[in-house]
Every structure is written in C-alpha cells, then in structure tokens.
Amino acid sequence: MTKALQSVALGLLGEHMSHCVVQAAAAGAPGADEKVREASEAIARLVRS
Asked: For the chain, first and last CA: distance in Å?
C-alpha cells in the first residue's frame, strides 16, 4: 500500500473512531460493541496491507 493510501486509510479510521465509536460507547448504545469490532477489523486490514 502506498504512503498516500495509508494516510487516507488512517484518516478515515480516525474519523470513524472519533465519531461513531466514541458516540456509541458514550451513549451505551446497543451497537457500541459492533462499532468497536468494526474498528478492530479495519485496523487489522490496515496492518495486513
């Protein structure tokens, strides 16, 4: 993966975590666990690439 694509991927992941994951966890939303799982999977994909 090129550095530019890695930068974009990290930016998207950061946005997702700072909005979706944090809000779901703070609200105690039923989907909070799902959001954390999604973030973990995204990190795993980024590391493998």
From this structure: 6
Structure-block tokens of residue 36: 């954390």
Encoded amino acid at 49, one letter? S
Count up the domains in the chain and report the number: 1
pLDDT digits (tens, 9 = 90+) for 9-41: 888 878 877 787 778 778 877 777 787 788 788
CB atoms within 10 A of CB 48: 7
DSSP codes of every residue in 13-38: HHHHIIIIIHHHHHTT-TTHHHHHHH
Q: Is 21 exposed, middle or buried (0-12, 13-18, 19+ CB in 10 A)?
A: buried
Parent domain of 14: 3-48
